[in-house]
Design a protein that fits this description.
Number of strands: 12
CATH superfamily: HUPs
Strand content: 15-25%
Bound molecules: flavin-adenine dinucleotide
Largest sheet: 10 strands, mixed
Shape: globular
CATH architecture: 3-Layer(aba) Sandwich
Number of helices: 10
Strand order of the largest sheet: 1-10-9-8-11-7-2-5-6-12
Mean pLDDT: 86
Number of domains: 1
Length: 309
C-alpha cells in the first residue's frame, strides 16, 4: 500500500503513485550499480524547450567541522560565526541546475533565512551556478521555530515571484526537524512530494521516485510543487574558480521579516519552547574480549546476555 506523506489535505487529489520494489526485496534502488541514480542520467527529459524557474531553500549552518555550542540563555544553537551552505542543500542546488539545464532555459534562485546578514553559504550556491538569492535576516527572527521559518521562506518565495518548482532538503544537518519543506508547501498551498531520490519533468508534470523503506513510489504531480530531496539524488558539482568569481557580483537581496509582512516572528511567534537541555550520557567504554582461542564463546555469551541473539 502506498502511504502519502504530503501534508496538504488534498495531496491525494494531486498525486498518483505506485510502488516498485527491488527484485530481491531489499528496498535498494534497482538502478544502483547499473546506472547512476539521478534523473538526468537515467531518463531523458522531455521539456519542450520551456524555460523553468526553480527556487531552492538553502540553509546556512555553523560549520559541522567545529563543535557546536548552545546559547545557555535560550537553549538554541549559537550561530554568531561564519555560516556555510548546508551540504544537504547542495543536492537541491545541483538538482535545480540540472532541471533548468534540461529545460533549455530558466533560472535557479535561492532563499535563505539566517542571522547577521550571513551570505557565505548562499555565495557557494551562487558559485555552483544559481542566478540570484534573497536572504531574510532580522534580529526579530531570533527564537523562530520551524513553522515560522516556513512562513518566512514562503513569503520570500512569493516576493521573488514564485517558481515552477521549489526544492528543499529532506532535513537540515543542524536542526533535523525535517518539517520545513512540508510546512512550506502547506503555507504556499502547493502539493508536496517528499524524499525525492529521482526527479524528471515531462510535459509540465513532475515525476518523482520517492524513497520508501521497501523501495520507492513513483509519484506524479502537477507543477508548481514543493519537493524535498534526499542526499545522493545527484552529485553536487564543485564551484569552479570562474563560478566563485562570478558569484561575487550576482544579485543577493537582504530583507527583514517586516519587509515580507510576516508577523509574529521570533519567540513571540514560536509555538514551541525549549524548556531544558540535558547533557547526553557519556558513552560507556566498550568491553574488550581477548581471544585466547575461546573468544567467540565469550562474544556469544556477551550477546546472549544483551538478548540480541
Ligand atoms: C523554540 C525554538 C527556537 C529557535 N530559535 C532559533 C534561533 O533563535 N535561531 C536559529 O537560527 N534557529 C532557531 N531555532 C531553530 C530553527 O527554528 C530551525 O533551524 C528552523 O526552524 C529550521 O528547522 P530545521 O533546520 O530542523 O528544518 P528542516 O525541516 O530539517 O529543514 C529541511 C530543509 O528546509 C530548508 N530550510 C530549513 N530552514 C531553513 C532556513 N533557515 N533557510 C533556508 N532553508 C531552510 C532547507 O532546505 C533544509 O534542508 C529554534 C527552534 C525552536 C524550536
Amino acid at each position: 500500500m502506498t502511504v502519502f506523506r504530503a501534508v496538504t489535505d488534498d495531496a491525494k487529489a494531486f498525486t498518483t503513485s505506485r510502488i516498485r520494489k527491488h527484485a530481491n526485496g531489499s528496498g535498494m534502488d534497482p538502478f544502483q550499480g547499473t546506472a547512476p541514480v539521478g534523473w538526468v542520467r537515467a531518463v531523458p527529459v522531455g521539456n519542450n524547450g520551456n524555460p523553468m524557474n526553480v527556487i531552492v531553500c538553502v540553509k546556512q549552518i555553523p560549520d559541522p567541522a567545529t563543535p557546536g555550542a548552545l546559547d545557555p540563555g535560550t537553549n538554541t544553537l549559537k550561530r554568531d560565526g561564519k555560516l556555510i551552505l548546508d551540504e544537504s542543500d547542495s543536492y537541491g542546488v545541483e538538482m535545480a541546475l540540472q532541471l533548468v539545464d534540461a529545460a533549455g532555459g530558466g533560472e535557479v534562485s535561492l532563499v535563505s533565512m539566517a542571522p547577521n546578514g550571513e551570505v557565505s553559504g548562499m555565495r557557494t550556491a551562487l558559485a555552483m551556478g544559481a542566478s540570484k538569492g534573497m536572504l531574510v535576516s532580522d534580529p526579530a527572527l531570533q527564537g523562530s521555530d520551524a513553522l515560522t521559518t516556513a512562513k518566512v521562506l514562503a513569503a520570500a518565495i512569493n516576493k521573488l515571484g514564485g517558481a515552477d518548482l521549489i526544492i528543499a532538503a529532506t532535513e537540515s544537518s543542524d536542526g533535523y526537524t525535517g518539517t520545513v519543506p512540508e510546512q512550506l508547501a502547506e503555507v504556499l498551498g502547493l502539493p508536496s512530494v517528499t524524499f525525492a531520490k529521482k526527479v524528471v519533468i515531462t510535459g509540465g508534470t513532475l515525476n518523482v521516485n520517492r524513497q520508501t523503506e521497501a523501495g520507492y513510489d513513483e509519484v506524479t504531480c502537477p507543477l508548481p510543487a514543493v519537493i524535498s530531496v534526499t542526499a545522493g539524488v545527484v552529485e553536487p558539482r564543485y564551484p569552479s574558480f570562474k563560478g566563485i568569481m562570478a558569484a561575487k557580483s550576482k544579485p543577493l537581496e537582504t530583507v527583514t521579516a517586516s519587509d515580507l509582512g510576516v508577523t509574529p516572528v521570533g519567540w513571540a511567534g514560536a509555538g514551541q519552547s525549549i524548556v531544558s537541555v540535558t547533557q547526553a550520557e557519556a558513552r560507556a567504554a566498550g568491553e574488550i574480549i581477548e581471544d585466547d582461542g575461546e573468544g567467540y564463546a565469550k562474544i556469544v555469551a556477551f550477546l546472549e546476555n544483551l538478548k540480541v541473539i
